[in-house]
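Input sequence (224 aa), recorded before submission:
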Amino acid sequence: MNQPEPEREAEPLKLRERAYASFTERLLAREIKPGQFVTQRELVALTGLPLGAIRELIPRLEAEGLIKTVPQRGMQVAHVDLNLIRNAFQFRLFLEREATALYAANATDAEIAEQRQRHEAIIARAQAGGDEALIEDAEDVDRLMHEAIIDHLDNDIVSKAFRVTWLKIRLIRQYETRIQNHILVPVMQDHLKIITAIEARDPLRAAEEMSLHIGNARTRAMNY
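Predicted structure, token format:
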């Protein structure tokens, strides 16, 4: 009996998404390194997925700027340089400044209160001396706040573009630092300034605080 058409179409889509997720996970885990040259066969070995899925993955990675084809050398993973830092943070600024202003005007009180609670909990743990999970949890709180502000726009195009840019920011942080202890509290305090402006329902001030926060992150990255 023939398989229904929608199911036949769904399976390749699942494979493409699995291939993308596997590639990005290995990139962030440094199993695939920025600037590294890779072949399709090597990606098959790294991801454990079939060659067909990898071949379909390549155009997406090229379109997102995560790899590029170098004549006579093959595929090169995006490498961290000043151009990537400048472009990624500029793009974040364009997206997040406007998104923050709209979030300040439209987010629910409960959403805002949850953001404050998460950040204050991270600061309290850091000031108490920290723990093994603190850095990872702080990175999650950081990401979740930015994603919440972007996703509040309810615009799939913007949300997808933001996540690709965030992946590049993560690559930059691998060279810079993760949110390590010496910058963890200042980053959380930057966020709390944004949250305070959002609580006051002051879109202009919230957007300005977000701009300052992104500028601080860009400066740290440029210094490294």
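Checked by second reader. The domain at 82-223 is CATH 1.20.120.530 (Four Helix Bundle (Hemerythrin (Met), subunit A)).
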